[in-house]
Specification:
77% helix, mainly alpha, Serine Threonine Protein Phosphatase 5, Tetratricopeptide repeat
Protein backbone atom coordinates (compact mmCIF):
# COMPACT_ATOMS: atom_id res chain seq x y z
CA UNK A 1 0.00 0.00 0.00
CA UNK A 2 2.77 2.41 0.94
CA UNK A 3 4.54 1.73 -2.34
CA UNK A 4 1.63 3.40 -4.13
CA UNK A 5 1.71 6.27 -1.64
CA UNK A 6 5.46 6.67 -2.16
CA UNK A 7 4.88 7.10 -5.91
CA UNK A 8 2.02 9.50 -5.16
CA UNK A 9 4.21 11.57 -2.80
CA UNK A 10 7.04 11.56 -5.33
CA UNK A 11 4.65 13.03 -7.93
CA UNK A 12 3.58 15.69 -5.41
CA UNK A 13 7.25 16.62 -4.96
CA UNK A 14 7.71 16.88 -8.73
CA UNK A 15 4.62 19.09 -9.10
CA UNK A 16 5.81 21.23 -6.16
CA UNK A 17 9.09 21.77 -7.96
CA UNK A 18 7.19 22.59 -11.14
CA UNK A 19 5.46 25.40 -9.23
CA UNK A 20 8.77 27.26 -9.27
CA UNK A 21 8.20 27.66 -13.02
CA UNK A 22 4.61 28.77 -12.52
CA UNK A 23 4.46 31.48 -9.90
CA UNK A 24 6.62 33.61 -7.65
CA UNK A 25 7.79 31.77 -4.54
CA UNK A 26 8.43 33.04 -1.04
CA UNK A 27 10.73 32.28 1.89
CA UNK A 28 8.50 29.51 3.27
CA UNK A 29 8.55 27.76 -0.12
CA UNK A 30 12.36 27.71 -0.03
CA UNK A 31 12.40 26.45 3.57
CA UNK A 32 9.96 23.65 2.68
CA UNK A 33 12.39 22.16 0.12
CA UNK A 34 14.67 20.41 2.68
CA UNK A 35 11.56 19.05 4.44
CA UNK A 36 10.28 17.70 1.13
CA UNK A 37 13.60 15.98 0.38
CA UNK A 38 14.01 14.47 3.85
CA UNK A 39 10.37 13.31 3.93
CA UNK A 40 10.93 11.58 0.59
CA UNK A 41 14.01 9.78 1.97
CA UNK A 42 12.23 8.79 5.19
CA UNK A 43 9.20 7.55 3.29
CA UNK A 44 11.45 5.55 0.98
CA UNK A 45 13.25 4.02 3.97
CA UNK A 46 9.98 3.04 5.65
CA UNK A 47 8.40 1.70 2.46
CA UNK A 48 11.38 -0.38 1.28
CA UNK A 49 12.76 -1.24 4.76
CA UNK A 50 16.06 0.61 4.53
CA UNK A 51 17.88 2.36 7.36
CA UNK A 52 18.99 5.89 6.59
CA UNK A 53 21.03 7.93 9.09
CA UNK A 54 19.79 6.90 12.59
CA UNK A 55 16.76 6.61 14.85
CA UNK A 56 17.47 9.77 16.85
CA UNK A 57 17.56 11.87 13.68
CA UNK A 58 14.17 10.62 12.46
CA UNK A 59 12.59 11.06 15.89
CA UNK A 60 13.65 14.71 16.00
CA UNK A 61 12.71 15.19 12.35
CA UNK A 62 9.20 13.83 12.93
CA UNK A 63 8.35 16.47 15.53
CA UNK A 64 10.01 19.28 13.56
CA UNK A 65 8.04 18.24 10.45
CA UNK A 66 4.72 18.32 12.31
CA UNK A 67 5.55 21.71 13.85
CA UNK A 68 6.62 23.18 10.50
CA UNK A 69 3.55 21.96 8.60
CA UNK A 70 1.13 23.23 11.25
CA UNK A 71 2.90 26.61 11.34
CA UNK A 72 2.86 26.80 7.55
CA UNK A 73 -0.87 26.08 7.32
CA UNK A 74 -1.73 28.54 10.09
CA UNK A 75 0.36 31.28 8.44
CA UNK A 76 -1.23 30.54 5.05
CA UNK A 77 -4.74 30.76 6.50
CA UNK A 78 -4.13 33.91 8.57
CA UNK A 79 -2.33 35.76 5.79
CA UNK A 80 -4.83 34.57 3.15
CA UNK A 81 -3.36 35.01 -0.35
CA UNK A 82 -0.11 36.52 0.97
CA UNK A 83 1.47 33.06 0.94
CA UNK A 84 -0.72 30.78 -1.15
CA UNK A 85 -4.22 31.57 -2.34
CA UNK A 86 -5.10 27.87 -2.46
CA UNK A 87 -4.47 27.53 1.31
CA UNK A 88 -6.80 30.27 2.53
CA UNK A 89 -9.72 28.05 3.54
CA UNK A 90 -10.09 25.46 6.33
CA UNK A 91 -11.37 22.92 3.77
CA UNK A 92 -8.22 23.17 1.65
CA UNK A 93 -5.95 22.90 4.69
CA UNK A 94 -7.91 19.89 6.01
CA UNK A 95 -7.65 18.16 2.62
CA UNK A 96 -3.88 18.67 2.46
CA UNK A 97 -3.44 17.47 6.04
CA UNK A 98 -5.49 14.38 5.16
CA UNK A 99 -3.16 13.64 2.24
CA UNK A 100 -0.13 14.22 4.49
CA UNK A 101 -1.39 11.94 7.28
CA UNK A 102 0.11 8.70 5.78
CA UNK A 103 3.48 10.50 5.58
CA UNK A 104 3.35 11.43 9.29
CA UNK A 105 2.41 7.85 10.19
CA UNK A 106 5.25 6.48 8.04
CA UNK A 107 7.90 8.75 9.59
CA UNK A 108 6.56 7.95 13.08
CA UNK A 109 6.67 4.19 12.49
CA UNK A 110 10.05 4.51 10.78
CA UNK A 111 11.79 5.92 13.85
CA UNK A 112 9.83 3.72 16.31
CA UNK A 113 10.76 0.50 14.47
CA UNK A 114 14.18 1.62 13.24
CA UNK A 115 16.13 -1.14 15.00
CA UNK A 116 13.82 -3.87 13.66
CA UNK A 117 15.16 -3.39 10.16
CA UNK A 118 17.74 -6.12 9.60
CA UNK A 119 21.46 -5.33 9.49
CA UNK A 120 21.61 -6.55 5.89
CA UNK A 121 19.22 -3.79 4.92
CA UNK A 122 21.13 -1.15 6.91
CA UNK A 123 22.51 1.74 4.88
CA UNK A 124 25.54 3.44 6.44
CA UNK A 125 25.56 7.14 7.28
CA UNK A 126 28.14 7.73 4.57
CA UNK A 127 25.97 6.05 1.95
CA UNK A 128 22.91 7.87 3.29
CA UNK A 129 24.66 11.17 2.74
CA UNK A 130 25.58 10.14 -0.80
CA UNK A 131 21.95 9.27 -1.57
CA UNK A 132 20.85 12.56 0.00
CA UNK A 133 23.35 14.49 -2.15
CA UNK A 134 22.14 12.73 -5.33
CA UNK A 135 18.47 13.42 -4.59
CA UNK A 136 19.22 17.00 -3.56
CA UNK A 137 21.26 17.59 -6.70
CA UNK A 138 18.52 16.26 -9.00
CA UNK A 139 15.70 18.17 -7.29
CA UNK A 140 17.94 21.21 -6.84
CA UNK A 141 18.70 21.23 -10.56
CA UNK A 142 15.00 21.39 -11.41
CA UNK A 143 14.43 24.06 -8.77
CA UNK A 144 17.33 26.15 -10.08
CA UNK A 145 15.97 25.86 -13.60
CA UNK A 146 12.56 27.01 -12.34
CA UNK A 147 14.14 29.95 -10.52
CA UNK A 148 16.04 31.01 -13.65
CA UNK A 149 12.91 30.78 -15.83
CA UNK A 150 10.96 32.85 -13.30
CA UNK A 151 13.76 35.39 -13.07
CA UNK A 152 13.88 35.73 -16.87
CA UNK A 153 10.13 36.35 -17.22
CA UNK A 154 9.96 38.64 -14.18
CA UNK A 155 12.82 40.71 -15.57
CA UNK A 156 10.99 41.16 -18.86
CA UNK A 157 7.79 42.21 -17.11
CA UNK A 158 9.69 44.59 -14.81
CA UNK A 159 11.04 46.35 -17.90
CA UNK A 160 7.50 46.69 -19.30
CA UNK A 161 6.30 48.19 -15.98
CA UNK A 162 9.23 50.61 -15.93
CA UNK A 163 8.12 52.00 -19.31
CA UNK A 164 4.63 52.51 -17.91
CA UNK A 165 5.98 54.38 -14.87
CA UNK A 166 7.97 56.67 -17.18
CA UNK A 167 4.74 57.57 -18.98
CA UNK A 168 5.72 55.74 -22.17
CA UNK A 169 2.27 54.19 -22.50
CA UNK A 170 2.40 53.17 -26.17
CA UNK A 171 5.81 51.52 -25.79
CA UNK A 172 4.67 49.86 -22.57
CA UNK A 173 1.49 48.56 -24.19
CA UNK A 174 3.37 47.12 -27.18
CA UNK A 175 6.05 45.53 -25.00
CA UNK A 176 3.34 44.05 -22.79
CA UNK A 177 1.77 42.49 -25.88
CA UNK A 178 5.14 41.08 -26.93
CA UNK A 179 5.54 39.70 -23.43
CA UNK A 180 2.11 38.02 -23.58
CA UNK A 181 2.91 36.52 -26.99
CA UNK A 182 6.34 35.26 -25.90
CA UNK A 183 5.35 33.98 -22.45
CA UNK A 184 4.41 30.33 -22.40
CA UNK A 185 0.95 29.60 -21.02
CA UNK A 186 1.84 25.91 -21.21
CA UNK A 187 4.63 26.58 -18.70
CA UNK A 188 2.01 28.02 -16.38
CA UNK A 189 3.04 31.69 -16.35
CA UNK A 190 -0.55 32.67 -15.58
CA UNK A 191 0.17 35.31 -12.95
CA UNK A 192 2.71 37.16 -15.09
CA UNK A 193 0.40 37.15 -18.12
CA UNK A 194 -2.41 38.48 -15.92
CA UNK A 195 -0.12 41.30 -14.75
CA UNK A 196 0.68 42.23 -18.36
CA UNK A 197 -3.01 42.20 -19.32
CA UNK A 198 -3.84 44.34 -16.29
CA UNK A 199 -1.21 46.87 -17.35
CA UNK A 200 -2.64 46.98 -20.88
CA UNK A 201 -6.13 47.46 -19.45
CA UNK A 202 -5.02 50.42 -17.35
CA UNK A 203 -3.40 52.03 -20.40
CA UNK A 204 -6.58 51.58 -22.43
CA UNK A 205 -8.65 53.11 -19.63
CA UNK A 206 -6.34 56.15 -19.61
CA UNK A 207 -7.03 56.46 -23.37
CA UNK A 208 -10.82 56.26 -22.74
CA UNK A 209 -11.05 52.89 -24.49
CA UNK A 210 -13.11 51.13 -21.83
CA UNK A 211 -14.53 48.51 -24.20
CA UNK A 212 -11.08 47.28 -25.18
CA UNK A 213 -9.95 47.46 -21.55
CA UNK A 214 -12.93 45.32 -20.54
CA UNK A 215 -11.81 42.61 -22.99
CA UNK A 216 -8.27 42.70 -21.59
CA UNK A 217 -9.57 42.40 -18.02
CA UNK A 218 -11.89 39.58 -19.00
CA UNK A 219 -8.93 37.65 -20.43
CA UNK A 220 -7.26 37.85 -17.02
CA UNK A 221 -9.79 35.42 -15.54
CA UNK A 222 -9.09 32.83 -18.27
CA UNK A 223 -5.48 32.74 -17.10
CA UNK A 224 -5.74 33.40 -13.39
CA UNK A 225 -9.00 33.16 -11.45
CA UNK A 226 -7.16 34.23 -8.26
CA UNK A 227 -5.89 37.50 -9.73
CA UNK A 228 -6.25 40.29 -7.19
CA UNK A 229 -5.33 43.82 -8.27
CA UNK A 230 -5.78 47.00 -6.25
CA UNK A 231 -6.11 50.23 -8.19
CA UNK A 232 -6.73 53.85 -7.26
CA UNK A 233 -8.67 54.21 -10.50
CA UNK A 234 -12.41 53.63 -9.91
CA UNK A 235 -13.03 52.94 -13.60
CA UNK A 236 -10.35 50.22 -13.61
CA UNK A 237 -11.79 48.58 -10.49
CA UNK A 238 -15.33 48.76 -11.89
CA UNK A 239 -14.26 47.16 -15.17
CA UNK A 240 -12.31 44.48 -13.29
CA UNK A 241 -15.36 43.58 -11.19
CA UNK A 242 -17.69 43.50 -14.20
CA UNK A 243 -15.28 41.45 -16.32
CA UNK A 244 -14.77 38.96 -13.48
CA UNK A 245 -18.52 38.65 -12.92
CA UNK A 246 -19.16 38.24 -16.65
CA UNK A 247 -16.47 35.57 -17.00
CA UNK A 248 -17.74 33.46 -14.12
CA UNK A 249 -21.32 33.75 -15.37
CA UNK A 250 -20.15 32.23 -18.65
CA UNK A 251 -18.31 29.50 -16.74
CA UNK A 252 -21.56 28.54 -15.01
Amino acid sequence: MYKFYFIFFLLICVFSIFSFFVEPFNFLDVVSIPFMIMSLIGLFGYTYKRQFINKKFWKIYFFILIAFDISYFIASFLLKSKIHSDLNSPTAIFFILLISLPLYIAIFRYYRNFEKISDQENVSLKKSLKILIVITTILGGFILLGVLVNYYYNNKLTYVKSLYKKGLFIESYNKAQEFINDTSVEMGQYTLISDALYLQGKILVSKNKQDLAFKKFQKIWTYNSNFDALSTNNIVNDLLRKSRSNYFKKMK
